[in-house]
Design a protein that fits this description.
Blueprint (H helix, E strand, L loop, with lengths): L3 E6 L4 E6 L6 E7 L4 E5 L3 H4 L9 H12 L4 H5 L3 H13 L12
Antiparallel strand pairs: 1-4, 2-3
Protein name: Phage tail assembly protein
Length: 106
């Protein structure tokens, strides 16, 4: 049985913004381009346990889980565009037991 849950192509690039301590100038570095293919593995119990650390903070828990079960680093997961986070959450949710999407109601 494969551990791959699915794939998702980013709609927006993942961009790190930094500010120079000397000049205050902001620079941007693209970590992942729009269209990058995020691979989601099927979460295991040990992966899902991370949600316990974020009781009452579902978004933080979702971002931490995304970082654990994808080919993105923790920093990249934290810098995802909100729409991409929502779509990844939908992919996770609809494949969970009794899960449903979090998008617009039918």
């Amino acid at each position: 049985m494969t551990r791959i849950l699915g794939t998702y192509k980013l709609k927006y690039p993942i961009i790190r913004e930094t500010r120079s301590a000397e000049t205050g100038e902001v620079s941007e570095e693209t970590l992942r381009e729009a269209g990058f293919c995020v691979v989601l593995k099927r979460p295991r119990g040990k992966d899902m346990r991370v949600m316990d650390q974020y009781e009452g903070r579902e978004i933080s828990g979702s971002i931490a889980l995304i970082a654990k079960i994808t080919n993105l680093s923790e920093e990249e997961a934290e810098l995802l565009d909100g729409e991409d986070i929502g779509e990844l959450g939908n992919l996770l949710g609809k494949n969970a037991p009794g899960g449903q999407t979090t998008g617009e109601p039918a």
